[in-house]
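Chapter summary example.
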Amino acid sequence: MLSPDLVQLFNNLQIITDGASTRLSASLVPGYNLYRIGKDQSGKPCLIISVSDIDHNYSYHPISLEHVIINHGYQCRIIDSNGISEEGKFSIIQCISTDPLLQAYFLRVCSVIILLIGENPNTSVVSNAVDKIATLFSALSSPPKNSLQGLWAELFIISQSFSPSILAEAWHITPEDHFDFALGNQRIEIKSTNGSIRRHSFSLEQLIAPVKGQIIIASLFVQTSGAGISIIDLLDIISKSLSSLPGLQFKIEQSVAATLGDSWRLASDERFDIELAKQSLRFYDAKNVPSIPPDIPPGVSNIRFVSDLTNVTQIDLNVFSGKGSLFRSVKKR
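The structure predicted for these 333 residues follows.
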């Protein structure tokens, strides 16, 4: 099932200016009768969940994070677009920022959370989802861990792959991992440049294959373009490919948040030329990349260098793809 368009639902809601501050304007999420997207009296968005096993006699304490507040068993009155009101206790995840970009990001994450929790939410599953939200939004306050260009290139490879689910599963958990994709003894490392020469920075570890393993280097040109597509656009493409796999959808969102950190606003602003990326994409066997001898003296580590792939022969993916599911998946659609 596709992620619901919560941004459109939220934008259609009217702000209720009369009555108690606990009144919310809300609309049912199509296809998910236990979820509502709401707008409070200050215009902030929230996700309202009817939890099946909530203890109405227990006094829950709110969970306050930097960008969101979570309330379980929150007593409120909900008024829908037809003016019909409903009063009760709900689990509410609310964005507390007035920043429109952050509100849209919040709604984007909530659309994945709905799929992740499912059609019969209970306190245990909702609490687990809250932990995931806390981790994701905490990352948005951290320094960025990779360039926007590098992250775009990795997402581009996933979006163009024959099997996005396998690449999403194999994608690095943290930006500090040696390889962008790892599955079994197969590795894929993505290298991008905004120039016209395939000159890339490598760590020595990125060119040393695991035992009985193999490494593919993907090289592409990534240049800014006002007519290009953004990281958010790529996420939308990937999300549609992973519509039946909300866990992987959320993993992608978490990895993006951890990589972008406090530069997350650029995810929708910076755009890159996707046609140039498609036309320039080449694959290489790591064994053929110009490198230095691997027998490094003891005590020497963290070796990095720049290699020019201009005269390196590219590989035929049809040959390499027979060596494992990761290499088969990266074949272009």
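To summarize the output: Residues 39 and 45 are 5 Å apart (CA to CA).
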